[in-house]
Amino acid sequence: MEEIIKVEHLKKSFGTVTVLNDISFSVHRGKVLSIIGPSGSGKSTILRCVSQLETVTDGDITICGKTLVKNGIYAPKNELHEIGLMTGLVFQNFNLFPHLSVLRNIVDPQVRVLKKTVGEAQETAYFLLKRMGLESKAFSYPCQLSGGQQQRVSIARALALRPEVLFFDEPTSALDPELTGEILAVIKDLAAEKMTMVVVTHEMAFARDISDYLFFMDGGVIVEEGKPFDIINNPQQERTKAFLSRFNHN
């Protein structure tokens, strides 16, 4: 099975503080990896390194067979751009452009990044808005939407760029509890369609049910990894047990 992401011995430091220490994992096409752990454990930093929002200190990252960074040395700039088009990141705080309509939030990146015509980009945008149940909101602005609606727009925007893999950085953490379900349902649908995804989440039951593989992080290292059901319901490491004891996994 094709490896979409391969990370080996990844290290990331901010000054003298090491936030990722010898992280290795891979994600195969059509599979879902979930990453759980306490705040500050390095979960989001992994996503930021793989999506080029942070530079690594050392280690290797390969995406779709293309080397992003090897032994801490990055590929040439034109290759980095090409690799960047293969990944999409959905942030916890939506990151929509407040001065643009919902439609333009999805259309403009396609025109700028994929060099589509406005007509082609609009066709894709309307298709995705309908899929997200937001076709009536095309000419609304982000401030006129609920948090759940804004997050669905941000997912549509990421999908519009046709990434090979989609990263979710705690996509429900900024939402009221009653809005969380609608975002989890969208991600579940994407998983059913075999979209390759890496999901950083605090929703333990969701992580258990949607993922093909899961790891628990603490202090910048992977403490425990394996099948989601096994880790969530029967963790082996004391640190994992202590973390999961705070959650209801039903």
What does the model show?
- This protein has 250 residues and is an alpha/beta fold.
- Helices cover 37% and strands 27% of the residues.
- The chain has nine helices and eleven strands.
- The strands form two sheets. Strands 7-8-9-3-10-11 form a six-stranded mixed sheet, sandwiched between helices. The protein has a five-stranded antiparallel sheet with strand order 2-1-4-5-6.
- β8, α6 and β9 (196-200) form a beta-alpha-beta unit.
- α3 packs across α4 and α3 (102-113) runs parallel beside α5.
- The longest helix has 16 residues, at 177-192.
- The protein starts with a strand and ends in a 6-residue tail after the last helix.
- The relative contact order is 0.17.
- The model has no long low-confidence stretch (mean pLDDT 94).
Set out the fold topology.
Layout: E1 3-14, E2 17-28, E3 32-36, H1 43-50, E4 58-63, E5 66-70, E6 73-74, H2 77-84, E7 87-90, H3 102-113, H4 118-131, H5 147-160, E8 165-169, H6 177-192, E9 196-200, H7 204-210, E10 213-218, E11 221-226, H8 228-233, H9 238-244
Parallel strand pairs: 3-9, 3-10, 7-8, 8-9
Antiparallel strand pairs: 1-2, 1-4, 4-5, 5-6, 10-11
Mean pLDDT: 94
What characterizes the major β-sheet? 6 strands, mixed
Unreliable stretches covering 5 or more consecutive residues: none
The total beta strand count reads 11
Shape type: globular
